[in-house]
Amino acid sequence: MISRFLTGAICAVGLLSATCANADPGINPFSNFLAFFTAIPRQMVSFPTNYPPGTIIVRTAERRLYLVTAKGEALRYGIGVGRDGFNWHGIETVTDKREWPDWTPPPEMLKRRPDLPHHMAGGLANPLGARALYLGSTNYRIHGSNEPHTIGTAASAGCIRMTNNDVIDLYSRVRIGATVVVQ
Known about the structure:
Blueprint (H helix, E strand, L loop, with lengths): L1 H21 L6 H10 L4 E4 L9 E4 L4 E7 L2 E6 L2 E2 L7 E10 L7 H6 L18 E5 L5 E3 L10 E3 L3 E2 L2 H10 L5 E4 L1
Helix pairs in contact: 1-2
């Protein structure tokens, strides 16, 4: 029994060390370590659609985001979505992109959660994570997360959450003006 525990502990330390060594210097390595166990791996998939390459399609029921890359193909990412009462559907456009964005909770969120800060500078503790894609004139964003264990769940106030590694990848592939279809 003790040998199993020690073996498990040694493996966990090895994984954490490897994660830290390979981490983006701007990302909390422990967050990456947790994501190793909870994240849904991104992968290229067959994806029949009439939308052109560069379009983002969010399927909230699946908790997946698809970036159309070519006719019949898309890159699939795991996401976290809005909890009951905060989910939404529609078509928006990426109007801005920011690295390590600041976060200012909207007034309605502060009303629900008066314990939140009124403003938070970008960084490791910021709930918007490493990157954010701003959607139209809404308060919604596709953004990273300092809580990778929420990917695959319905826990947000309507934003689309991704692991920091995945949002960095998506950010590099998407241009301002891209269409985002939330289904």
